[in-house]
Amino acid sequence: MKHQRWLPWVFLAPTALGMGLFTLIPIVASIVLAFFQWDIITPPKFVGFANFATVATDSTVQVSFLNTIVFVIVAVALQLGISLGLAVLLTEKLPNWLRSFFRSAFFFPLVLSAASVSVFMKYLFNEKFGVVNWLLSLINVPAVPWLTSPAGSAVVIILVYVWQNFGFSFLLFLGGLASIPTETYEAASLDGATGWRKLVQITLPLLSPTTLVASVMAIISALQVFDQPYVLTGGGPGDSTRSAVMVIFETAFQRLEFGQGAALGVILTIIIMLITALQFRLSKRFVFYQ
Amino acid sequence: MALTQGDALAITRRAALGALGAGVVGATVASWPRLTGTDIPGRGDNSLSIVIQGTKADASARQKLVADFNKVHPDIRIKVQAIQSVDWKDFFVKLLTMVAAGQSPDLVYVATEGTQLFAERLAEPLDSYVQRDAAELKEYFEDVHPSLVEAMMYKGSLYQLPMDWNAANMYFNTSALAKAGLQMPADDWTHLDFRTMLSSLKQANGSDFTPYYWTNRLFGGVVPWLYINDTSVLKETKAPGGRWLWDSFYQNDPSSKMRTGGALWEAPNALDPRVEESFDFLRGLVKDGLGVRPEEGGGNTLVGLFASGRIGTTPAGGYWVEGLHEAGMTQDQYDVAFFPKWRTQRHQFGTAGYAIMKTAKDKDAAWEFVKWAASKPAMETQFALPTTTPTRRSMVNEALYAGKGPKHWKVFYDTLDKFPSTGPIPAPPQQAAVETALIKNVSLAVSGDQAQLKSALQSLQRDLEQALGGK
């Protein structure tokens, strides 16, 4: 019918409008802004690639991007490892109510505000008055400067981030595990396969599509880490926990170099796109579809 | 004919689209004030919009002030909007975002941290208004210390009338002092006396006790220790000018001749040997367990920790009195002293007042509010509790601290009178970047060995150069 031609567009319009207004236009504006010097107050001035040249030689930027890469490697490995491990354990024979309880408990941190969690954790990990050091003191472990030493800060930020985010990967893995046919395990058992062998030769390969999705999402999210280092350590001590997004925020909103901030945003976006593209390319070799 | 349930649920596509359209129109009409920005305080009418740092409750608390103002100026409508923020740096970020979005307020209550940022870019100088209404303002300036006024000057022009202020004095837990057999220190005590006191406090109060707690920020962190050692992380020079004000209002003040057009911080100074000396002193306190490694911020936890008797001493200003009272501390459980002496006894302070924005719709009306807010009755309404220190000397009195303490409350204003070189927080127009640079390097500087200290100061110097390079 005639009016059916435009009907899909009507239904798509709200989403398209939202995407255009709040995603597409800001992306284009950020890319354009990266070529201007702008401090909010005075009119923007075109500077070509100068912003990219400036941020590329900035030692704080270099350190913060390196920190972010190290953070992504450790945090994503932990997040995926823990969530996969817990998902596998939870598919074992457990009463339904206990399974439901753990499923909710593991997912719960994800719905909390990262900033609120970080404020709370800041109290827990305070060197002098925190509960964590008090507990350690009960077993004669001396006070650890969790938030005032480079190593301690990095550990706390990774722990807090992983604790708050593993729930999402956990749910993905739980869904993935449920889709593996039980007959495959039964056949393997008849052939004498043990638990470990089943995990390595059946579960992990058949779970690889889920692992790909979980790792892509975890890496993209970890590359944008901001709340935890911003609230817990302010990026310190020194630059030891400064992340890429923190440096974007500071460049734009504290130093009022919005052009440089936008240039950093463009660089980070390109890095995210490259890593994601690499993951999908590698997936052709490592991901098995049933 | 009666409809079956199936008929009732069968909604035609036409009806669905109609309902959708009606919904969109309805939602647009309902949110029209938000979409057009007319719900923003001061927009859509001629109200003066005032932005303050704080919560909605803080904005409501100023309604009495607004109501009193409207009794005098019924023709000037006022709307107060509070911006909630972690600190001043965060406040300025949010305010600048408002300005960029075309929602610039008419007046902003700004502290020293933002005075020069506003003076350089956003605020209107008050010089012509002050000169015009000199007779009315004579009484105000007679009551306010010139150091506070000078802190509001930038390159010879005055940008705000200071309303409240706080110096970094030293608070003591008197129970902890008594346990160690110590008395409150003398006015001219030194940094070495301070260290000796901390050692005694530590010995007497056990391992769970922190003799000295300090925070990592621009106010009350490392800066007071730099000021008493006659140095700072930024080179401080004085701008010429300002005689129009000093010769008009402070000609009889003994410090009038030393007054200038305001402080300038245009170059980093982190490699000054005295800076290293001050940092090294703090490093020694941390190393010997006399002071904590400072975390960023940390101010929120401080009142509770101090009130619970777990901290011996910490730098803070008059703003702490009400908080400690609410936390259950009686006036004899704590006291306040001057910061110790080193090469000088120059203290650090911060002050705040209303700045008129260059973009204000009606600057004359805005000035009327500023002038009225600085009057004694208005300030008594605004600063009825010791949550800060009023800039008017006559208001810092027995009555303000009655039942709340501390015993030596006179220390607050005496800080200005006894040490006229006492100066503002080093806050150039690039304050946010300067504070970030300082915070990020302080913790490393005081928590390692001598080599780490030197390396942190070199890093601080580089970061400050970068911060000051881009305005």
Automatic annotation (TrEMBL), chain B:
Name of the protein: Extracellular solute-binding protein
Entry keywords, A to Z: Signal, Transport
InterPro entries: Bact_solute-bd_prot1 (IPR050490), SBP (IPR006059)
Gene3D superfamilies: Periplasmic binding protein-like II
Upper lineage: Bacteria, Bacillati, Actinomycetota, Actinomycetes, Micrococcales
Main location: other
Subcellular location: Cell envelope
Family: Belongs to the bacterial solute-binding protein 1 family.
Keyword Transferase: no
Pfam families: SBP_bac_1
